[in-house]
Amino acid sequence: MKPIDLNSSKKYPLIVSLYGAGGRGDNIKKQLIDWNRQLAEQKIREDYPCYVLAPQSKDLWNADTLTLIKEVISQFPSVVMERIYILGNSIDGHGTFIYIQLDPDYFAATAESVGAGRKQTEDFIDAQLIKDIPI
Q1: Which of 9, 53, 65, 84 has its CA at a distance of 20 to 30 angstroms from the CA of residue 106?
Q2: What is the pLDDT of residue 94?
């Protein structure tokens, strides 16, 4: 979703919105969960113009999917690269922790709920990697 009245002479932040296990698959309408519907409301879009990217995957988020997301973001005009945010809930709260540990310098801040960190066979979260990221 692009900002309302996109002005190519301006720069806009971007939110990567991960969905939760119920959004997996190839039906993009599954991404229209509560917070994505809220982000799409007219007043919110007018008051807080930004891009919203709601990617979809059939599996867990990993380095390959992060690479794809970054490729998509690089094609959007007028994105403030220092203001890319990520949010997620449940399995995708887990996804946000995966992504910020894979590339701690890419996201400006993150908001997640009910997310773990890494696979259960690994340490929960490497706090050294993400200590400077606003969460």
Answers
A1: 9
A2: 80
